[in-house]
Design a protein that fits this description.
It is a single chain. The chain has a domain of 308 residues: TIM Barrel. The chain is built from 17 helices and 12 strands. Strand 5, helix 4 and strand 6 form a beta-alpha-beta unit. Helix 2 packs across helix 11. The longest helix has 23 residues. The radius of gyration is 23 Å and the shape is globular. About 2% of the residues have low confidence. GO terms for molecular function: cobalamin binding; methylmalonyl-CoA mutase activity. It holds the Pfam family MM_CoA_mutase.
Length: 465
């Protein structure tokens, strides 16, 4: 028998604890303490070892990363080749381990690649290129002119997400993704297909929907790639997830852990061995909860989101500068964003532990609750013919719209967004220029289905009486 730490105190059962809580609540229902995370998943205030489904919890742990640490991967937006090169080099000199280069609609020509990447070796520094101005296969051709042997990083090609948000066609880009994947098959650390949750997260999806629809998006890519002749093992390992991390600290930790667990189910459906399948998760702090009324609050909010990301086991982390809502970030805000990751790693020692959430009865149970609810919704999407058909039927849009309305109601009824609906800046000059988020259909043609809007919660709250 293990010796108890405090032998003078008798053990308390959960039933007796609940009874004491009901007494202390003085008429308020015990159910009010439960947390609803979406998809019918509701959680108790705490759990005990007896309540944890230990065999399944072991399966979740087995799907997590076995190595500690993550890449500090700041976001850099392309302007000009010399200026962008300076930003990239400065980031690497001041703590970045990898880079995410947003090219926008710019097409990197052969003459621009050497100038933009001057003094940066793609064989050493992982860089993710995000672009809508050049096809993935063409970008690979340009990049391999300068690093012909081995590349690290990848291309954030997510054509179906662009289709769902902007109505743009996806067929040509998706075919090019397969070509790029085949061309770089010998480069194990270069990934050419992004599976982004931002398109669902920023439209207001709850965590269960975000998980389910992101998995459906991944499955749509895997099906298309394998049908085009890409081997299943190559496809599974060379796409990567880019996940928005919100402000619900514990839920976001569980969301990332559940993602790895569920993606393993999908790789097994392709009859692939677990030991050969690698899930790469890039996490970025959310834009949905950012504020323009008091941007410094975004730094605090992003720190909590970043902690969720690293405790949840991300492979790479991008923290948005606090003033990104106002336009181009400053050098000061960009450095603070990089330093959030550095402090968590070097001073918080979170970079020295693999799966720090393992063993927590609450987090293990929350992970399983999210996974079960998300898997049920994912199967519903698959039964409707997959993500594309479900989207064309407005099934996904209707689900997210309902979740968005529930989120709005929660904030109207007292949930707090600091600096927006509570603790606002009242001193003169204490607010900043408002930049409303876009909820417009950016497609020029009339589509038979709705597009997902890019929302910011602050825009809704500031329009309320």
């Amino acid at each position: 028998m293990p010796q108890r730490l405090f032998p003078d105190f008798s053990a308390m059962t959960k039933e007796s604890w609940q009874q004491q809580v009901r007494t202390d609540l003085k008429g308020t229902s015990y159910e009010s303490l439960q947390q609803v995370v979406g998809g019918g998943a509701a959680l108790e205030p705490y759990y005990t070892a007896a309540e944890l489904d230990e065999p399944r919890a072991r399966e979740v742990r087995a799907a997590q990363r076995s190595q500690p640490g993550w890449l500090n991967q700041p976001l850099v937006r392309f302007t000009t080749s010399p200026d962008t090169n300076w930003q990239l080099l400065e980031a690497l000199d001041r703590g970045a381990d990898a880079l995410w280069l947003d090219l926008g609609t710019t097409s990197l020509l052969a003459t621009e690649v050497p100038k933009t990447l001057h003094k940066i070796r793609l064989t050493d520094v992982p860089i993710i290129f995000e672009t809508s101005g050049i096809l993935p296969a063409d970008l690979v051709t340009e990049l391999t002119r300068n690093a012909p042997y081995y590349l690290k990083g990848g291309i954030a090609a997510d054509p179906l997400a662009q289709w769902m948000q902007r109505g743009t066609s996806y067929e040509l880009c998706l075919a090019s993704v397969g070509e790029a994947m085949t061309a770089t098959k010998a480069m194990r650390e270069f990934r050419t297909c992004a599976v982004g949750s931002q398109v669902f997260h920023n439209a207001g999806a709850d965590p269960v929907q975000e998980l389910a629809f992101t998995l459906a998006l991944a499955t749509a890519y895997l099906d298309a790639l394998t049908e085009a002749g890409v081997p299943p093992l190559l496809a599974v390992n060379r796409l990567f997830f880019s996940i928005s991390v919100g402000t619900s600290y514990l839920t976001e930790i569980a969301k990332l852990r559940a993602l790895r667990y569920l993606y393993r189910r999908i790789s097994r459906a392709y009859q692939l061995p677990d030991a050969l399948c690698r899930t790469h998760v890039h996490a970025r702090t959310s834009t949905l909860y950012e504020t323009t009324s008091l941007p410094p609050n975004n730094l605090l909010r992003a720190t909590s989101e970043a902690m969720s990301a690293v405790v949840g086991g991300c492979d790479a982390l991008s923290v948005r500068p606090f003033d990104s809502t106002l336009g181009e970030p400053t050098a000061f805000s960009s450095r603070l964003a990089r330093n959030v990751s550095l402090v968590l790693k070097e001073e918080g020692y979170l970079g020295f532990v693999a799966d720090p959430a393992a063993g927590s009865y609450y987090l293990e149970t929350l992970t399983l609750q999210l996974a079960d609810a998300a898997w049920a919704l994912f199967l519903d999407v698959e039964e409707r013919g997959g993500l594309i058909k479900a989207f064309e039927q407005n099934f996904i849009q209707d689900k997210i719209q309902k979740a968005w309305e529930e989120k709005q109601a929660a904030y109207a009824q007292g949930r707090v967004l600091v600096g927006v609906n509570k603790y606002q800046a009242e001193e003169p000059g204490g607010t900043y220029q408002q930049v409303p988020s876009s909820e417009k259909n950016t497609s020029s043609e009339v589509l038979p289905f709705d597009l997902l809007p890019d929302r910011r919660l602050e825009t809704y709250l500031l329009n309320q009486d």
